[in-house]
Amino acid sequence: MSAARPLTVLRTVAALAALPLLLTACGYGSDAEDGPTRAEVAADAKKLSASEVKIGYFPNLTHATALVGVQEGLLQKELGGTTIKASTFNAGPSEIEALNAGSIDIGWIGPSPSVNGYTKSAGKNLRIISGSASGGVKLVVNPATVKTLDDLKGKKIATPQLGNTQDVALLHWIAEQGWKVDAQSGKGDVSVVRTENKITPDAYRSGSVDGAWVPEPTASKLVADGAKVLLDESEIWPDKKFVITNIIVSQTFLKEHPDVVEAVLRGSVKTNAWINANPDEAKASANKALEKLSGKALPDEVLDPAWESITFLDDPLASTLDAQAAHAVSAGLLEKPDLKGIYDLEPLNKVLEAEGRPAVDDAGLGVR
After folding, report:
1. Chain Cα centroid distance, residue 85
2. Which residues contact 49 (CB under 8 A, 6 or more apart)?
3. What is the pTM of this model?
């Protein structure tokens, strides 16, 4: 896949009605949506410019930076006396709505809701300030009916939602094969069946779909039910990396509390370093956090392969977000917008420099 120009403004009034679907890029994992919780802070800890920072994330593995950072106290450590107030979400629209309303200040979220939230506000509500995770998306199929990629023609393949990140990826891949699919209806040489991730395993077991292009842990849940991984999406990206989770911040909060934003980024960078240095311990920590949020942990046969397919990193992989948006445009779901200014990586690069690490790039989409 080659990087393309920036894009994304909804195409028609009808498309605007479908915006919640387009925004839901990362709605997978637990069904829980808990109320906000506050981290414990030492009585003598010094506060930064804000008494608290409200963060949001999803209860799933691709948001493990937040899960582990909160669970292990790595984020709170950098914030000192400034309290973390954490809320969990299950869909991009609700997290963007919370950011717009001031219910959260900083959030872990997928690329499509970041792009759509930014363009819908005419570039006034958020900035992407860091990466968090790459990968964790697979095409899994019924090995009895699909043995090679060529066998997908004429089959029914599930994606989470119309216009979400995985839906766009599948539509783009289909187009690259020279096959035709109507993006809105999903009908064509391959039948694209939009199905919620929590329902997809039942659809697979019933034979309603022949496979699915889905994020973790849904992909590994299907494999546990007998499906086979036919393609890991990372295999079709340059350097096998593409953004699946990044960190956004309210522009107002960034302007008023840059020290707090920098502290959260320090915590995120140190959390990712700890995750990569201690993968087994980090995996257990993330699963423990999921159990607290959802009431049950993931079994090893799902957790282990799902965790292995996700890369935790600080680079937002900006060129891949740009390309993902371009793919949505070429699929006919979006019109090309101006994404200039969606990134502000200066605070992250300041943190990375202090750690003796190289700066990361905004692919020409930064505020400076």
Report:
1. 21
2. 256, 257, 258, 259, 260
3. 0.84
